[in-house]
Amino acid sequence: MNSKEIIRKEFWGRYLVTWMYNLHFSLLTGTTGTLIVGYIGVASIVLLISGFFAWLSKYSKWVKSLKFKSRSTKIGLLYDWHKLIGLTFCIPLLALTVTGVMLAIPKQTDPILTALVNNISSPLRTQIQPCKQFNIPLSQAILIAQKKVPDARLAWIETPSNLNAIYRFRFQTVNDPSYCFPHSYIEVNALTGKLESMFNIDKQSTASKIKNWIHPLHDGSIGGNILKVIWVLSGFGSAALFFIGVYRWLVRTKKI
């Protein structure tokens, strides 16, 4: 095979997986949709916590209250199912929702993390005015970057453009849990080969390291197949809670 042959050419958002990602993250409406998703997540957290304490306040004997009772009414049976599903998936759904909110609306949630832990470190973005031709080929730029983090895995490459003569590389270090979206960056000048900036997440603040765990925890990539199965079941569980809750309300209000 010719080493210069293009084996795949895709653009983000134009194939199914990335389309679904954009739908999930921003409802296909950009920044506005991301804000909507974030605040829906906040409302979901309130519902989960309030639902748990609403159940907790009614029962002193937890084991007994978890059992299905002999019910003669549809409302009672729906309540038991709603209670059981909610208690089963309460912790997974809280973990998914909290991390999702932090990903969707970082400007609103980062101050909370900063107040609880310490300041969040952010990588720099260098701007270099480009010229007509770049002097440093990609292969050489990669070697320059890898010398700074020899044990790290190269995950993303941003090539120079007609607006910025910078190679930007994204690496996963040994202690970085995020495989798809690692948080260590190295920038190389495409004109001179100079190392312009370096951001190693392993050497950053505690708050920065916590943020680095948010995405792999949210997508289940740090827990192997077991965590992914739990997350998938939790997703179905949240849908079941919604439909059972709505159906029970309709029955109680005699709308059906």
Beta-strand proportion: 5-15%
Mean pLDDT across residues: 89
Shape from CA axes?
A: elongated
Rg calc: 24 Å
State the low-pLDDT regions, or none.
none
Secondary-structure element series: HHHHHHEEEEHH
Describe this structure in words.
β1 and β2 form a beta hairpin. The chain is an alpha+beta fold and 256 residues long. The protein has 8 helices and 4 strands, in the order ααααααββββαα. It folds into 2 domains: 139 residues, no CATH class; 66 residues, Roll (Nuclear Transport Factor 2, Chain: A), CATH 3.10.450.
Task: Quickly list its features.
256 residues; alpha+beta; Nuclear Transport Factor 2, Chain: A; 2 domains; four-stranded antiparallel β-sheet; 8 helices; 53% helix
Task: Give me a quick take on this structure.
Helix content is 53%, strand content 9%. By secondary structure, the protein is α+β, with helices and mostly antiparallel strands. Strand 1 and strand 2 form a beta hairpin.
